[in-house]
Design brief:
InterPro entries: ComA-like_MBL, Competence_DNA_uptake, Metallo-B-lactamas, RibonucZ/Hydroxyglut_hydro. This is Metallo-beta-lactamase domain-containing protein. It comes from Candidatus Giovannonibacteria bacterium RIFCSPLOWO2_01_FULL_46_13. It holds the Pfam family Lactamase_B. The structure is a single chain. The protein contains 7 helices and 16 strands. The chain has a single domain (about 15-20, about 30-270), classed as 4-Layer Sandwich (Metallo-beta-lactamase, Chain A), CATH 3.60.15. It is α/β, with parallel strands linked by helices and about 280 residues long. Residues about 1-5 have low confidence and may be disordered. It has helices at about 65-70, 90-100, 120-130, 190-195, 220-225, 245-255, 260-265, and strands spanning about 15, 30-35, 45-50, 55, 80-85, 105-110, 135, 140-145, 150-155, 170-175, 180, 205, 230, 255-260, 265-270, 275-280. The strands form 2 sheets. Strands 1-8-9-10-11-12-13-14 form an 8-stranded mixed sheet. Strands 7-6-5-4-3-2-15-16 form an 8-stranded mixed sheet, with helices on one face. The structure holds zinc ion. Zinc ion (ZN) binds near residues 42, 91, 92, 210 and 211.
């Protein structure tokens, strides 16, 4: 049945958490932790805000995400505030099924792409059964994750049919002066559109598009982003040849330091909103 389970918001400001002004001084020394999880060929990014709100973006290709979450989350913690799916491809979706089954999730953010994927259908079934609030990811939506921590959806503007990569969510996570640009599997066409648009794309951290495939990382886009760190989520000896030499060179060209999960395993960055440290 269509629209049986509509989204609560569209083009809206969604506030997951907002601390009282009086508690601002209590934030001293608290950090945002950002992880690219080591889940093989796929994407799974886990973020914990200064007051411990958590968001998972994509779940990787299988249940290895559960083991990784066990490493970065406290043992007793069985809930995740927000889960976002960038697009319905198995290397981003399959692990999310296990996450939704095993954790209490408050909000699920996705584009409602009409592309058929059995894993996506299963996710939607669990979302209905568990009564998880669904938020539509579309350009203009802003999710406040914590005081001073905001996720802004830059893409998609409107969905196209056919290739889910073209509808992949591109979002900017900002904490104080530090920005993380998260591109899912968006490709050169989407990147170019953003590079030619009005958004300020400049970010300290870029999650490189589509596992370092040559179909992403448009040089014009990279120049606009000017990342200090380029993070590539990719499986060791994957059959696609990701990341490509071409992309690695383009990233070096803009002066980015590259980290990749196939060589560096889990990548962990932390920030106080002013500076950024690579923990590993
Ligand atoms: Zn992918």
């Amino acid at each position: 049945m269509k629209n049986k389970f509509p989204y609560i918001f569209s083009l809206a400001l969604i506030i997951i958490a907002f601390l009282a002004w009086s508690t601002v001084f209590g934030l001293e020394g608290r950090k945002l932790n950002f992880y690219v999880l080591d889940i093989g060929q796929g994407d799974a990014i886990f973020i914990e805000t200064p007051t411990k709100n958590q968001i998972l973006i994509d779940g990787g290709p299988d249940n290895s995400v559960l083991e990784e979450l066990g490493e970065v989350m406290p043992f007793h913690d069985r809930s995740i505030d927000v889960v976002m799916m960038t697009h319905p491809n198995l290397d981003h979706v399959a692990g999310l099924v296990d996450v939704l089954k095993n954790y209490d999730v408050k909000y699920f953010v996705d584009t409602d792409d009409g592309y058929y994927l059995a894993g996506y259908e299963e996710l939607k079934k669990i979302i209905r059964e568990k009564n998880i609030t669904r938020i539509k990811a579309e350009r203009g939506a802003r999710i406040i994750l914590d005081r001073g921590v905001e996720l802004t959806i830059l893409h998609p503007d409107k969905l196209v049919s056919g290739d889910p990569n073209q509808n992949s969510v591109v979002a900017k996570l900002s904490f104080g002066e530090i920005d993380f640009l998260l591109t899912g599997d968006a490709e050169k066409g989407e990147e170019l559109k953003l590079a030619q648009g009005e958004d300020n794309l400049e970010s300290e951290v870029l999650k490189v598009g589509h596992h370092g495939s040559k179909t992403s990382s448009n040089p014009l886009f990279l120049e606009k982003v000017k990342p200090d760190y380029a993070l590539i989520s990719v499986g060791a000896k994957n059959r696609y040849g990701h990341p490509t030499k071409q992309v690695l060179e383009a990233l070096e060209e803009v002066g980015a330091q590259i980290f990749r999960t196939d060589l560096d395993s889990r990548i962990h960055l932390e920030s106080d909103g002013e500076s950024l440290t690579v923990v590993k």
